[in-house]
Amino acid sequence: MERTTSIALIGAGWWATSYHLPSLTSDPRVVVTAIVEPDADRRDKVRRGHGIEIAVADVGELLERVVPDGAVVASPASAHADTVRALLERDVPVLVEKPLTVRAEDAYGLVSLAEERGVELTMGYTAQYTRAAQAAKEWVGRDIGDLVQVVIEFSSGTERLFAGEDDADAPDEQHPSGYSPENGGGQGNVQLTHALGMLTWLTDSEFERVAAFTDDRGLDVDVVDAMTFRLRGGVLGVASSTGTVPGETPVRHRVRLLGERGTVEVDLAFGRAWLWREDGVTRHVGPRNDEPGYPAEAPARAFVDLIRGEGPNLAPGRPAAAAVAGVEAMYRSAATGRFVDVLRVGTPSE
């Protein structure tokens, strides 16, 4: 009889309950043993709806009762550092929703802790779980020569999420507390992090220096971001992100990497990637007919594979920590009007 893997879900917001929980409960290898959620109504709704044995308000209570085989952390970003640290200290593998943390120092600390203890730390950067992303990483390392420049655009309609009334069950409605400054909200932390995480993972690089502007459009968090940056090693880049895309206007989530011998472009929203080489060779990878362009349930499935030793870590923590450092530097630059040197995440040997 196949062994089962026990998973605790930390957070019962709309993303966790719409994607992570269905992915886990539909997997015959998994038993969701606990739900951790401070809101009693949400916690009880999930417990009753899915027959979950343990329902507690915080991770401390969880670990007093059970040490699961893994944990999916989908709580507000401001709570990630303490929650993930507590789990890693008990050698519990963790899948964390983006961003890893709000502060780069905390992100680096979690990565170092996971590496020191030999515990898996992986991220919910959904676009990295596509065949297109895997192909793009291979192309960047093999086909385009030395990287010269990066161009990022991440436009979305998130402005309406940053103001209005909370509704935890409706992803398209407003969630002001979930996306508040106190909880690590704003376009940089909520949206641009996807693209910066893709960049640092594709290139195995980090941000070195950043200059940026942000605009809150009268809200409590940033809605429009523009940054220019230098990666370690000298690659230059620009990134823009806005949450103001209206109604039926298409969003655009693109990372374009220009090398000395070719170019790679990744479409994070629709799971596509392109390669153009100097010798005329072109490649395109996209979703199959039976695959979603944005596989929102894939991170949880891949996490189960990872902790069972049946698959790789498709979204490791170290590039995610580098993305946190980039976003943090963007905010600091915008606030001070100065260039900002970025905290070095480094390598595992450092």
Please characterize this protein's 3D structure.
- This protein is α/β, with parallel strands linked by helices and 350 residues long.
- The protein has 2 domains: 5-125, Rossmann fold (3-Layer(aba) Sandwich); 127-293 and 315-341, Dihydrodipicolinate Reductase, domain 2 (2-Layer Sandwich).
- It has 9 helices and 15 strands.
- The strands form 2 sheets. Strands 14-13-12-11-7-10-9-8-15 form a 9-stranded mixed sheet, with helices on one face. Strands 3-2-1-4-5-6 form a 6-stranded parallel sheet, sandwiched between helices.
- A hairpin with a 2-residue loop joins strand 11 (252-259) and strand 12 (262-267).
- Helix 4 (80-89) runs parallel beside helix 5 (104-117), helix 5 (104-117) runs antiparallel to helix 9 (317-336) and helix 7 packs across helix 9 (317-336).
- The relative contact order is 0.17.
- Residues 165-169 and 171-176 have low confidence and may be disordered.
In brief:
By secondary structure, the protein is an alpha/beta fold. The protein has helices spanning 14-25, 40-50, 59-65, 80-89, 104-117, 131-142, 187-203, 298-307, 317-336; strands at residues 5-10, 30-36, 54-56, 70-73, 94-96, 121-123, 147-155, 207-215, 224-231, 236-242, 252-259, 262-267, 272-277, 282-285, 340-341.
